[in-house]
Amino acid sequence: MTKPDRVRDDGAETEREAKKKRNSSRAELEVHPPLWEPDDHAALQHTRPEMREVGDDQDEPVTETNGARVDEMTKEEEEDLSSFAPKSPISKPYIPDELNDPTAYPEILPAFEDALAKYEAKLCRRAALFTSEYRGKEAPSCLFHHEHLHPIRESAKKAVLRAAKSIIRLSSSVDGEPLTNCCGLWTDWDKESKTGTILTTAHLIRSKHPTENHWKGRDEYDRKAEVTVHLRDGTTAKGKLLYHQEHYDLAFFKVRVDEQVQFASFNGSVHCGQDVFRLGRDENMNLRITHGRVEYWNPASCERYHYMYFLHEHDDYLCDDNGGPVIGLDGKVVGLINNHLSASFVPSSILEKCVDLWRKFTCIPRLHLGMKFASISFLDPINVEKMWRMHNIEDGLIVEKVSKESHAEKLGICFGDIIECFNGEHVSTTIELENMLLDKCKDLFDQGSKLNDKIYVSIQVFHTDEQLRRTINLNVEVSDHGEIIRKSTYPITATKRTSATVQSSQNVAGLKCLTSC
Q: Cβ neighbours of residue 385 under 8 Å, at least 6 residues apart?
């Protein structure tokens, strides 16, 4: 039977034309992976078994070549063919109209069904490749489906992919029982020992957390907890604890890793209202991305006053990414997530100083002032303006708590007083104060000081009740433990009832929230 030398209206080639294309000089084999569609079975109506390409069975490599083509191949092309065997194209089988008569051509349909089965098997094998994993298998990120991010999508995508190279996932267990999961950041890699250093949260080895009040110091940490580091290639390695610091809830782990890792890059500053992205990895090591901004908040009374906060408005998927980074649009880390539930994070300025101190002194020392503070700059502008109008004060730190029997208490510093300067430098936020404390510790250790030393620092205090400003030399301890603020209490031992000063109902109401923590 003569085969028509034409192109069908639906775009399918005749067998003659297909052979011409295969035998043409220097022709390249083209692979056209079709999209997998639900109606492929219905669409695949026509083929002829004789039209099967070489290698259609089980992705068999194409080994037959036309003599003329080999003659024209360059030496480089011949070397390429010797190291790589091209597979045949993935072509849909079909039955030509003139052969689509089961009565006249009973052998066509079985041959077609056999070819169709092989075609579908090829598609399934290709669909299992990693390049097809994006086809609806993962939940889309905010950068993919949030329209309000379109103006920054390109820059944000580059920033996220850059930062993601330094993010690792860790898990911990005690006596075979799972403890927790978190993320971390590569901070170092030693070429000779093939070991990398990871910075993460100490929550990874925190075994007990009896209260949300960090200033009570009741958390317990298991230094012998088994830590597993989940590497980017899907393998795991055992992590060894190098050091953990309770006040900042940071921990450093060492792990064997043969290939050099990409370190996290820190941005020295972060400001409220800034556009940021919170990154983490889920249990499958897939990246999780959440867009938000840095919030204008003073830390709660029970939280450490060096915290900043991440606020997001959309219901993005959030994994348990304690220890995951918060990054800016430049891809640099501006913070490390401390508590993914309250969205608190340790800002980069403090992280950098902590990492530098640990590298240099194998510890992270800090000065314990015996007080908690709130920043005036984060108050409502109405309140800030009133302070300026009535008392000519518009900046500084309000004393929220004074620890029992601390030197600050003995010097008469009380709740409601204002700290205006630290060692002669004006201070307006608790983050600034925390950076000053770390800088002072670095200077002290450079000069030979060590942990548990007692030193004096100068602070300028405005006593609000007396309307008095004075400079005080405060005796503080150098420590790498979590600072504990003890509530001032005293026992009632007198047997005779004594009179007390009657407070106004307004003052009593105002004290309710202050005595709860």
A: 394
